[in-house]
Structure prediction request, 453 residues.
Amino acid sequence: MHHPPMPPISRGFRGRRSSDVDPARVPPGQYVTRDFPVLSAGPTPHTPLEAWTFAIDGAVDELRTWTWDEFLALPAETITVDIHCVTKWSKFDTHWTGVSVDTLLDGLDTEAGYATAWCDGDYTTNLTLDDLTGGRAWVAYRFEDEPLDPEHGGPARLLVPHLYFWKSAKWVRGLTLTLEDTPGFWEGYGYHNRGDPWLEQRYWGD
Amino acid sequence: MSGRLLWRTVTVREVVPETARARTLVLDVDDWPRHVPGQHVDLRLTAEDGYQAQRSYSIASAPEDEALELTIDLVDDGEVSPYLVEEVRPGDQFEVRGPIGGHFTWDATRGGPLLLVGGGSGVVPLMSMLRHLRARGGGIDARLLLSARTAGDVLYADELDRLSGDGIAQVHLTLTRGTPAGWTGFARRVDDDMLRAVGPGPDAARHVFVCGPTGFVEHAIEALLRLGHPPQRIRAERFGPTGGATP
Prediction:
């Protein structure tokens, strides 16, 4: 078995380990911030709510769509989760309100094992249905009891907190269910296909 | 990028002061894969007791340069940047892996015209593009609009002068917190008129790159969209929290 060489000691580096952070909640290579940094690849889209819809399409027996008002009428959940961005920051105890993906897929007949989340601004990300179901993924439209800001993905974003946050696609407008896995935007640029922060799956081959 | 991105030990060859809050680390690294301008690296520090901290930094050097250069801006209350800006000296070692990223990138084969808009240390990946263009002999319409708080906060000021004087790029500076005597550049936040004056306009600009603090990038992109630049030609890289200070 090959062991990586010992990392060099960075002379004089002591680090700043805060005593108020539980290390068991910090995935490898991450640091905890109280800010909410923004990562997006292009302009922030501003889709009017009258024009907003959410769709479940692809390998499904019926196309499902909701208008904004219909979406708000779905059963919502408010959750408290830690989030982890591949750019190294983690943020604890964030509060979100949204609709569980389980609710959106409830009763649907599909052979699909994967989904591509598609978004305003042409962003996409791919996930397994396994990662999107079982009470682990939501389409969230409120953050800290306020409507979600456009910079952070409003009016609604995917929220998959057990994966790196690029999987929690901003400005999400639908999920296309697929029989085969297709890499999304960042996944095609060298980022890991699944992105589990606890396994430090940042890039291809991690 | 097919295999795993390995951590590589780098040795600091030289430390170059840039401003009161930023400096460039010139790094020796074995077998560094050639990067594309705009890409970044992950950097990892290890303390004597094994504690590690990682951050991402844009690459400042051109792919043609012999050494890898990172320009580090001091983040108040930061954990890693104070060490890199205030403590590191030649001979010190840490690790990097990369290069990383494939969207916020440009090389001369993609042509121009090229419009680069930077806020503060957001100029760093844009500088890699301009240094690459210089190494390729220029010949592409490239324009940089750089916003900084004061003249003392402008990164690479002398080199930007030379790039401009040598006709590699048109360089425009704007200062938002006061100007020195005799200042002939802009002296306000980036706005529609400024972008119109800098050009190229939406019909001509093929590639637009905007990098800086989140608030700066949102503000600059809104102005670019108002001028008619198609959103799919605008590539952005943001850092820091929402509502962060505008340089």
Q: What stands out?
A: DSSP finds five helices and eleven strands in chain B. The mean pLDDT of chain B is 95. Chain B touches chain A through 49 residues (CB under 8 Å).
